[in-house]
């Protein structure tokens, strides 16, 4: 992050993991104050657990509200997943069964979050390695219904769509056709890894590599359907030189520019 | 019930016990155990990374393999209870005390306490140091009545073993560990004056003095307690040093 404290690298905005900045003070907060002077901020949470049957945690919401008040992010986002059960936090974004019960639960949690923050949030589709027998809705129908019931926006992770589709056998085009395009406020791209072959073939969402070619193709298709959208390249493990990361950003920007009719208001971070 | 499925999934992620979740999963049986294994590996490895970042000195002392085994046992018995992971790991020092394979390293829990103290100081609230001129304005006859409020980053430590020395010789830039007298007790403090965490070894009487001031005693009482322990306690120099360090944030009469 120190590269960005000086304001030198070209990026439209900086996305942070909200929970990393829940501290009362200290160097991380101070550095974010510096970054804030040069770039807009987006707060991307990983710990709220919007899918939890036990509901979202009031203290966590308060800490998020404090962060939002302090840094006034342009966007606040979280995941369609759960990570808290019986007050134990599992540090992963676990997928939900797409049932009416889960939809009611997530909608309540999203309502409560948006009310506490006083603003809309974006909800991101997860990557997954399995599906549930209990599911009665597709993921895109679930997200559509969630957006309709709560007014939340969607954060479309194109890599996650591709990874989940390959692992669980659904059609990525049907996914893009199925989601309400107007609700999509941001797009994520990331790298994944491939393990095994044949029946053992599994794509793992690592955020540790360049964006794969089929994901670029799906991104292009998404932009054609949705129009330009602010796009973020996620890279959390095996972080490369900043130049590699910025190069990925330039590729995404070219895709956006090619679908922008007038001036491109959407930018890559 | 959504809750029961989530409980079963959390058991997969934390302990790889898959039986309760399997009936809910639509993915073919042949592939599923490996796929569930990805969730378990993600959860475990990311939490081990969190502990490794908080306890680099412990990891260097015991080695990577021992640390992994320690971390895995800790995660199983003390999974995170909240999602702010820079607060995860506070219970590790006590856990090490009860971790049988670490029994022949009796200094380990206290070194871990020092590391956790540094983490706490790193994330604690910011505060401005007391301006020394405030002290100069106090009439001489009232000096003994002064009470201080201390920096929210200040942590006091007392150990039967040389924790600060052990910490220092296990920094990444130290490639040769010197002879250490493990029976030598050390007391001291951790403080984050601006953005860098510092620590200092102090004599026991200074620790007594700091402890008294931190708990709200007057400067007079704190100094008497320090002098009772060691009659060579040097108030002027000690006070000056702590004004320079930024230990105090405000004074009251």
Report strand order across the widest sheet of chain B: 2-3-4
Q: What separation lies between the terminal Cα atoms of chain A? A: 13 Å
Model regions low in confidence, pLDDT < 50 over at least 5 residues of chain B: none
What is the N-to-C succession of helices and strands of chain B? HHHHHHHEEHEEHHHE
Largest sheet of chain A: 7 strands, parallel
Describe the structure.
The complex is a heterodimer of chains A (269) and B (253). Chain A has 269 residues and is an alpha/beta fold. Chain A has helices at 2-5, 27-38, 58-71, 100-117, 139-150, 158-168, 172-178, 213-226, 242-259; strands spanning 13-17, 40-44, 75-79, 82-85, 88-94, 122-124, 153-157, 184-190, 193-195, 202-204, 231-234. Helices cover 41% and strands 19% of the residues of chain A. In chain A, strands 1-2-3-6-7-8-11 form a seven-stranded parallel β-sheet. In chain A, strand 9 (193-195) and strand 10 (202-204) form a beta hairpin. In chain A, helix 4 crosses helix 5, helix 7 runs parallel beside helix 8 (213-226) and helix 8 (213-226) runs parallel beside helix 9 (242-259). The model of chain A has no long low-confidence stretch (mean pLDDT 92). Chain B is mostly helical and 253 residues long. Chain B has two domains: 1-90, no CATH class; 106-253. Helix content of chain B is 51%, strand content 10%. Chain B has helices spanning 2-15, 29-54, 56-62, 64-77, 92-97, 108-123, 132-136, 163-169, 204-214, 219-229, 235-245; strands at 147-150, 155-159, 186-191, 198-202, 248-252. In chain B, the strands form two sheets. In chain B, strands 2-3-4 form a three-stranded antiparallel β-sheet. In chain B, helix 9 (204-214) runs antiparallel to helix 10 (219-229). The longest helix of chain B is centred in the first third of the chain and has 26 residues, at 29-54. Classes of the chains: A alpha/beta (269), B mainly alpha (253). At the A-B interface, helix 2, helix 3, strand 4, strand 5 and helix 4 of A face helix 1 and helix 2 of B.
